[in-house]
Amino acid sequence: MKPSLKLTLKLMFASLLLLANRAVQGQDPTYTASISNDVMISSNVYEFDLYLIRTGSVALEMANFQAAITIDPAFRNGGTITPVFVSGSSELNAAQIPSSISFSATQNCIKIAPKLPPRTLYPGSGTSSTAGTIISTTGTKVCRVQLTNSGSFGNMPLSPVWSFVINPYRTLVSAFVGPATAKVNTNITLAASHSKTLNLKLLTEGLYNSGSGKLNKTQDADIDGNTWDKFTGLTADQVTIELAEATSPFNIIHTVSGINVNTDGSCRIPLPGTLSANYYVVVKHRNSVETWSKMGGESFSGNITSYDLTSAAAQSFGDNLKAVSGGMFALYSGEVSSSTSGVQDGYIDFFDLNDIHNLNLGSAYGYQSSDITGDGFVDFFDLNMVYNNNLNSIGMNTPPNPAKKKM
After folding, report:
1. CATH fold group of domain 29-194
2. Cα dihedral 53/57/58/62 (nearest 10)
3. Residues 10-30: pLDDT tens digits?
4. Among the CATH numbers 2.60.40.4130, 3.40.50.150, 3.40.1160.10, 2.40.330.10, which is that of 197-391?
């Protein structure tokens, strides 16, 4: 049966309306999606956040979000993983907060199902029942995910990778675009807009425990001498990670702060999917010497880049790591100050000795940079470590005259 002329004209009109909506919009909104704020709560509980961030000038009104994230089977370590959403963690509109999550052991894939689009346009009036979530330029949390393993997680990192194919499941982001009275639900998914992972392992001299071969957890303290863990779970301390171009002038092109370092020295850093060249990995810590990865930089062409700063001094630029027990290597500790108090200058020198000496005399306590050993107090042990590293003229070793600026 042939369609009537009237129906044909209606279909043509609808198609033209869709094209007009896209033309008025000019361009689709752009975004990045990241897996961040990883915390190893215990040997069998792991948590992370999923974020959407608007990157362009066009407002992003999220319509749908679904995710497929594969993980390293060695991380699962043969156990059975149960994923749940952390209650109250989502910043999406109530109608869009994810409620269905599962894990496929055969596919090693975390699957987050979408909610139905919240916007329903009423014919003729151009009004709608509800709106999508307006995604912020600073980031809107989709959810926080908790993975509980029936056994202990393995020694390998999570190594998450976004999947964009039907099998095992597909990551998809869509947005409402077009005039306010006739918005269209449009797929804006781009694989390059989704984060990559840098798996990094590092130790700091001050926190390293020669007996356990791991990092001590940093402590906070009060005036009465009471101490407690500064960070939850297995987090020992936090670092800032930068990526620098592998060629002169070695511009810093990306910075991530507040990265949790586990007691075994492992940490995971989310990176933009667009970063695919060779870069230096630069580690900054509140009381350790700034340390660059070995000469030439590392390739970030794949979804996962792994780097170990604990296996050999040669893993750092200029072999600038300290040998500690167990055949391990650590960042030199004791760099806290400069001619401007509290501002690191990259070298363990008189300024660091002076600051720690004065704080030691004043019986300083609490979580602060001058507590090199992280026990909650600035004392002789901190002063002794700084003194010895100062005698050995310890300081940062970098490519010549790095620009030290973020592009």
Report:
1. Immunoglobulin-like (2.60.40)
2. 10
3. 444 444 444 444 444 458 899
4. 2.60.40.4130
